Amino acid sequence: MIHSLRRLLRCHPRTVDLVVAAALFVCSFPGSVLTLPGRDLEVPWWPGVLVAGVASLALLWRRTLPRSTVVVTLGCAMAVAALGYILTVLVIGPLMVALYTLALRSDRTTANLFTVSGITLLLGTSLVVGPDTEPLVLKLVGPVFWLLLPTSLGTTTRLRAAYLEAVQARAEHAERTREQEARHRVTEERMRIARDLHDVVAHHLVLANLQAGTVVRLMRSRPEEAERIAGELAGTTLSAVRELKATVDLLRHADDSETPSGPAPGLGQLAELAASFEAAGLSVTVNTVGRPRPLSAGADLTAYRIVQEALTNVTKHAGTGSAEVRLAYSDDRLDITVTDHGGTTTTSSATSASSAPTDGYGVIGMRERALSAGGRLRAGHRPEGGFEVVTELPLLPHAQEQPQGHPQGHPQTHDQNALA
User: Fold this and answer.
1) Residue 283 φ/ψ, nearest 5 degrees
2) Domains by residue range for the chain, with CATH
3) Cβ–Cβ contacts within 10 Å for residue 216, how many?
4) Distance from C-alpha of 311 to C-alpha of 273, rounded to nearest angstrom
5) Beta bridge mates, 323
6) Of 14-28, 90-104, 142-156, 276-290, which gets the smallest average pLDDT?
7) HSE of 118 in the Cβ direction (CA atoms, 13 Å)?
8) What three-state secondary structure class fits 380?
9) Is the pTM of this model over 0.85?
10) Tens digits of per-residue pLDDT, 263-310?
11) Which SS3 state, helix, strand or coil, does residue 285 take?
12) Cα(229)–Cα(209) distance, rounded to whole angstroms?
């Protein structure tokens, strides 16, 4: 009810001003005949009503010309004091409303200046020209109180409105910031899932393509070997389907998931990853230097995907049958180096190795993955031939390490060969 009334008053300001002016003009009638107890009216009532009517009429411009309105109503109040009327709220009401509007629509300095000037002029007029029969206390205390009150109320209302506006602005800014942060997080998650899809599809499709080609070549000359590789091809495609399903499940809501997705791959599955390149004709050697220490879940997945993408690039671009993965643990970081020595058998193989991309989507994706995990990556050709990808990832603090007997699940040996 109150909010509806306030909205109605804000929508019809002109009507409000007319009602206020009419009410103050009506109040001037009893104010013009008010006298001290035991004394008769010494001045006629109609001059006071006439002056109060002019002051009330000036209030119609209080919103657009607040300073001028204060000047006009102050002049009328001084005229009332000079005629000998008692300065009550009934006769100086228009001046009070004008001061309230000025304090509401201007700064504190302006409102205080007009108020102090008004009090000084009004008291001076009342003391110099006003009747001597009125008590001095009544001449001084009444006008000062009645003129300070609207200025204080107007200033308080203006400051409260400014405070509420600032609070609303901060709330809107916070809401916009939350929406932007949410959109930013969604974009980052989509990019991460896109990188996962790229890695999974590129790795398994390259292996499947090479296995299928090998089956075709060996089908007549070595049918038993072709049958074995065909079986591995089925395993490769099944693994691709599982990883794609696990990745796509991230796009679904938690309450829509029928079955929980499997654990995310990490360096603990590095041996299986290296073995999966056997059918593609790539022998992968994994060397571990230093005591293996745990990474965060995100960094562990990042390390696995970087090694996977680097080995896939070796299979696609390098004319070589071997690659080396080196894991070097230090106090605060893990250095991962994936190296191939380039093609040495044919000219075409060497040309393929020398043309390995350094700024393709795969390298860009690996670099973004490393940055997202707080590390860095560099990739490029080796002076002695071949291609090298070096990644630095931060390790967990010692206080967060797992027990000695379960360091992340990847092998403890310092020199292992994934393929015989």
Assistant:
1) -95, 120
2) 2-173 (no CATH), 185-417 (3.30.565.10)
3) 10
4) 9
5) 284, 340
6) 276-290
7) 33
8) strand
9) no
10) 667 888 888 888 888 767 788 889 999 888 888 877 888 888 889 888
11) strand
12) 12
